[in-house]
Amino acid sequence: MSQTDVGRFAPTTSGPAHPGTLLAGLLCWLDARSRGGRVLLRLEDLDPERCRPEHEAAMVASLDWLGLEWDGVVRQSDCADAHAAALDRLADQGRLYPCDCSRSDLRAHGERARDGSFRYPGTCRTRALPPASRGGWRAVDAPLRVRLPEGRIELLDESGLDLGADPVRDGGDPIVRRRDGAIAYQLASVVDDDAFGVTRVVRGRDLAPSTAVQVALQRLLGLRTPAYRHHLLLLERRGDKLAKLHGAVGATVLRSVYDARELCGVLAAAAGLWPEPAPVTPGELVADFDWRRVRADDRIMHWDGARLVAD
Predict the structure, then answer these.
(1) What is the pLDDT of residue 299?
(2) What average pLDDT does the segment 217-230 reach?
(3) Which of 2, 33, 127, 160 is at 20 to 30 A from 172, Cα to Cα?
(4) Which domains does the chain have, with CATH numbers?
(5) Whole-number CA gyration radius for the chain
(6) At 247, is the pLDDT very low, low, confident or very high (cuts 50, 70, 90)?
(7) pTM greater than the 0.85 cutoff
(8) If you write DSSP's letter for every residue of 22-72 in order, what string do you get?
(9) CA distance 52 to 11
């Protein structure tokens, strides 16, 4: 990795950091620093219902406390012009269409996508946008979907994980602008990666099913495809991701129990990078960082009321 290569860590600012957030940030940061590259903190703040300034401030503070310093901090909400330009390009290609199908409509159809959501069956795929003279996509109140090309995308991530898929067959055309006007994750992610020169995407394997959709969008928009690496997850005992959506312990509680070096050691040991959960800083892990040392399998951890415990 050269000085011109860029990684990014992209947490959603919808709640506090949790152990999974901190581990993902640490691995992304170590990947970049061990290669002599740059790494950005990209705050995903496009959801007007869930993302709040206080969550953003807490997220930044928690990552800083852990010892992760960034070569830049950017917000997706500052990229509205680039998102609109991407929608313009898709509209010019005849790829955008309005879709009024509700979640209950998709559930009624009953087909599951690879990520566990309900597959979009293409109900509104033949609908057209208003002509540009009448506002085009900007005049549409309904959600907007993008008509993806059919066919399988072949792709491997650096670990050898097969990311190949046929996005249309497996999940259907994705929403790119929501009913409330917010740009959806898939489009914002690829546009922002390109805008900030991201060449490496390091993230949890729960996001692996989204990769083929993102590559399809990159190709439609003429954007570069970065290298991908998906890593282990921290799981609860019941098998769910150890995350805020499942009630995992938040950074505020963790910081009241651990100092930063102690928690970094716990996370590094859980990932296989440290022989035991002994205190260490992110900087001290850089010299010996190697993806071959990172566990390939997910790790079960639980909060016993006082400490994080790996099962």
Answers:
(1) 93
(2) 98
(3) 160
(4) 6-71+232-310 (3.40.50.620), 80-190 (3.40.50.620)
(5) 20
(6) low
(7) yes
(8) HHHHHHHHHHHHHTT-EEEEEEB---TTT--HHHHHHHHHHHHHHT---S-
(9) 13
